[in-house]
């Protein structure tokens, strides 16, 4: 680091994204991207809009907000648009949590810890149960800001909507963020609760179920007053945070309901198939409601399996946290990609004998 970096950032442990190697062609099951291309409607709108790239995009993102609000059954002033859901989370931490305690699961999305440190929050890590599920008692009436991914990552496990509501209403003077990056693959969204509770922020992304990870687009659903706060942060940081083609991609993706439903159904079906094939090979796993599986094998360590698969051209995600180091997170790809994964794992296990 340079001598100019402020001292409070010297110990900042930045987020580590999933690897994106270019040395050869991989079956890429490590970053929870959709295996399907964006919808044709989204691409058509984006191509048409690209001709206007000499002009700034709409800083209010009005057309996309209207489409999302209609899709979610809320009002226009309940929607905030971010450059990926990561920006939604970053602005939320900045606006509401800076310098204050915030509770989130000890094992969850790694950016929560990073943002807490970046904005001077006191991180309060709530341990998971032995089966990796969330204990809602760690969040009930804590009088502290709260962030929960539902389904959680990297476990994929789901918290029931009535439990989420208990958490929200028991902390009425604090913000509760429910990060629903994976909710389209199982479970019920907390978005309807926005109409009942003014302390709830639901964070969503186009990266997973809408096939737009490369476009960087996310949004928040919340009470109108909270949305105004987030807009204040945005317009004080980067008013044109979403480019024209990404806005068009998002508009097409949110309107193309048939394609969205088809892709989600395929992923859910292949999640069941992948889990079955892994169980046949001796794996155990959590009950995932996301577009990935969190699995371990009794005869090979998580790191060893990850490295062996990488050598054979298949990428999965391995974590070094001692509590989960035996596991690997495996993105649900196409049926063909799954068959390659299973074949390579079978080879590795045979080589172990």
Query: What is the number of domains?
Result: 2
Mean pLDDT across the residues is 97
Cα separation of the termini: 46 Å
Level of helix content? 25-40%
**Helix-strand pattern, N to C?**
EHHEHEHEEHEEEHHHEEHEEEH
Tell how many strands the DSSP assignment holds: 13
> What radius of gyration results from the CA coordinates?
20 Å
Binned strand content = 5-15%
Shape: globular
Return the CATH topology of the largest domain.
Aspartate Aminotransferase, domain 2
Unreliable parts: none
Superfamily (CATH H level) name of the largest domain: Type I PLP-dependent aspartate aminotransferase-like (Major domain)
Q: Summarize the biggest pleated sheet.
A: 7 strands, mixed
Structural class, please? alpha/beta
Put simply, the count of helices is: 10
Order of strands across the widest beta sheet? 2-8-7-6-5-3-4
CATH class of the largest domain: Alpha Beta
Architecture (CATH level 2) name of the largest domain: 3-Layer(aba) Sandwich
């Amino acid at each position: 680091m340079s001598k100019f970096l402020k001292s409070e950032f010297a110990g900042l442990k930045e987020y580590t994204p999933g690897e994106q190697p270019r040395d050869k062609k991989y079956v890429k099951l490590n970053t929870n991207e959709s295996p399907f291309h964006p919808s044709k409607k989204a691409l058509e709108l984006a191509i048409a809009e690209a001709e206007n790239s000499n002009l700034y995009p709409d800083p209010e993102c009005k057309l996309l907000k209207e489409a999302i609000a209609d899709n979610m059954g809320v009002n226009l002033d309940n929607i905030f648009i971010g450059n990926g859901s990561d920006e939604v989370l970053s602005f939320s931490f900045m606006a509401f949590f800076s310098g204050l305690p915030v509770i989130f699961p000890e094992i969850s999305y790694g950016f929560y810890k990073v943002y807490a440190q970046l904005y001077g929050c006191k991180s309060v890590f709530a341990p998971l149960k032995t089966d990796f599920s969330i204990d809602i008692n760690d969040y009930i009436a804590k009088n502290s800001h709260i962030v929960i991914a539902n389904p959680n990552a990297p476990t994929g496990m789901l918290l029931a909507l009535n439990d989420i509501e208990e958490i929200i209403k028991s902390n009425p003077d604090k913000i509760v963020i429910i990060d629903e990056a994976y909710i389209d693959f199982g479970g019920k969204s907390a978005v309807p609760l926005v109409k009942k509770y003014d302390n709830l922020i639901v964070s969503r992304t186009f990266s997973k179920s809408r096939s737009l990870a490369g476009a960087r687009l996310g949004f928040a659903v919340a009470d109108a007053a909270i949305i105004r706060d987030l807009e204040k942060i945005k317009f004080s940081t980067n008013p044109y945070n979403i480019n024209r083609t990404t806005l068009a991609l998002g508009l097409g993706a949110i309107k193309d309901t048939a394609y969205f439903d088809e892709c989600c159904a395929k992923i859910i079906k292949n999640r069941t198939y992948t889990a079955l094939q892994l169980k046949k090979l001796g794996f155990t796993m959590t009950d995932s409601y996301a577009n990935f599986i969190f699995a371990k094998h009794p005869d090979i360590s998580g790191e060893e399996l990850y490295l062996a698969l990488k050598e054979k051209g298949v990428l999965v995600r391995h974590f070094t946290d001692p509590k989960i180091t035996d596991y690997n997170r495996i993105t649900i790809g196409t049926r063909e990609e799954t068959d390659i994964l299973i074949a390579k794992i079978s080879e590795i296990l045979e080589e172990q004998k």
